[in-house]
Structure formats: structure tokens, C-alpha cells
Amino acid sequence: MENPGSAQAVALWAGLHMILLVVLSVLVVRQRRVNKVAFGDGGSQELAQAIRAFGNAAEYTPTGLVALAVLAMAGGPPLLLHVIGLALFGGRVAHALGLSRSSGTSTPRSVGILMTWSAYVAAAAALLFFAIP
User: Fold this and answer.
1) Tell me, what's the pLDDT at 78?
2) Model pTM score
3) Cα–Cα 20 to 30 A to 88, which of 13, 20, 30, 56?
4) How many structural domains is the chain composed of?
5) CATH number of the domain enclosing 31
């Protein structure tokens, strides 16, 4: 990585996303214990929501973090990495909160996915920019 500040930016957002995934995982385990379900959701709406909140974060987070790391290696400035990292993290938190509280559509879920997609589009555009010499 060309800029140590870029590496630190990626480390910050990777660390925060890992904490988010642990928290969401703990919420799944808690619901499994409450509902006495070892596999699947056992028909529990609360457990199904916790499983999907974790699963959705686990599906979107790796690609976003890989994009941040590659962008840092390609010379992306720390400020850009922080903006994209914040949008991705904020989006994942908002989406998880929305999904944890409602199985239907909700404002936090909508805001969360829009922030996540915005981070993805910004990262993709920046990666393409830095890929062209």
C-alpha cells in the first residue's frame, strides 16, 4: 500500500465490520437459546430475522472490504476510503437494525441498502479510475 493512512483506514473499517458481525452472530445465538432451536429458524420469526440480519451483513461485507483493500493498494487516498467505509458500515448497521425489528420493509432497511449500494458504486468507480494509468 502506497499510503500508510490508507492502510489504517481499511484496518478501521475492517475492524468495525468484524465487530458488527460478532454482534449480529451473538443475537442469532441468543434467539436460538430463547427458542431452543439448534438448526434453521424453528418457525420463530425473531430467529429468522436475526439469521437474515447476520446473513445479509455477511453477504455484503466481504466484497466491500475487499474493494476498500484493493483501492488502498491502488493508491486511493484515506479520505476516499473513509467515506466509502463509512457508507458501507452505516448501511450495514441501518439494514441490520431495520431487519432485526421488522420482517417487512422499513426505513432503516431501505436507507441501509441504499447506503451499501452507494458505497459499492463509489468503490467500483474509484477502482476503475485507479485501474486506468
Assistant:
1) 94
2) 0.89
3) 30
4) 1
5) 1.20.120.550
